[in-house]
Please model this.
Amino acid sequence: MKNVFQGWLRLICLVAIFQCGPALRVRAADSLVWREDQNQVEADIESWPLSKVLESISAATDWQIYVEPDTEYTVTTRFHNLLLPQTNGPARLFIYRESVYNATQLIQVAKRPKPETPDGKPIPNELIVRLKPGAKESIDALAKRLGAKVVGRLDGFNAYRLQFDDAAAAQAARSELENNTDVESVENNFSVAAPGQLQPLAMSSPSSPSFKLAPPGSSDKLIVALVDTPVQSTRAPWADYLVEAVSLAGEANPDPNQVTHGTAMMDTLWDALGKALDDPASASLGFLSLDVYGNKSTTTMFDVARAIVEAVNKGARIVNLSLGGYGDSPLLDNVLAQARAQGVLLVAAAGNDGGTALTIPASKPEVLAVTSGKPDGTIASYANHGDFVDLIAPGASVILYNHQAYLVTGTSTAAANASGAAAALSINNHQSPIEASAQIPKLRGFAPPKR
Model:
């Protein structure tokens, strides 16, 4: 085992060295030294626990390192001035015994207290305005008078997104709007960051499950909507069942050589669906993609609300929200409540801050909040937890894009797995998605949270 483990440690060094910072020393007789300028590494380790080795690598490189829980080894190895090739490898390491899916524990170098709820980031020059029914002044006239532009509309809710020249103009307008008898409410609009770029997986990976659904075209099919970044449907196994791809943030031009988060979530949902369906060939489903990011790095709570309304209006019975932010939106609350009242299952990611922060929309009562963890109820160290969490789901999936494998981790993945499972159970059991969602914890890989 020692020789095998020495080889494993050298592999980690080979993969990790190229991004390391200044040389890191522990002590002369027992050390792990990284030299970025010389592209070399040396080690003189007599008996370090695995956790210490991984913490040293994480501290030197700022990499995210995931290890299978309860993996305990003692490391002994020596090498001097090992020359390492330059590489553009992935910025994550996964340490596991048999399956990469079991590497769920994030190595944390320094534990810092996390805020109960991180501050949301209101967009300083924007406001969301709701007019009363029968308002005498139209939103266009009102915006013109206040020197604003109407950049978003939810006419069914009398809700509008106003954009001003600057924060001062928005603040001045807010004072007037709050005293306007035609105005129902005024609120801030909050930004929602896009998920990070996915990194390729530098190892062999299983192929995606191969299955076919009932031929597309049925009018009574179950529609599953994905609110996310754009999807790339070319050659995707679910492409024939994509009913529509709607862009709510302008035309997007994703890099064809880089998989998008939306594509990865759709692949994950598809895989979960295939694993849980009793008879895929008779299952009538369709998918709806709603892009709320376009080419931007953020979206807004207003556009998330608008996407949910669009999904429901187009017949979606399940809406997957592998995204989230902080900052309450009464408009979004209203949209979620109405969607739930119409029998729509809303599934959202609990967040990857590793604390009890109330991520929105996951923390709302109308939403199935999904975190990442193991079937025994253990939540991944990076995943949010707390009383608002409804379900623990697998937080890792391997997807294939352009013949390149990607390992996707996080509560976004967990939410997509839950949405796929809910769709399958709804069809298997002839139940509504909301009714079927109660059975998800019985599936392999899922669990209810420990209270």
Summary: The chain has three domains: 2-106, 126-189, 193-442. Residues 126-189 form a domain with the Alpha-Beta Plaits fold (CATH 3.30.70.330).
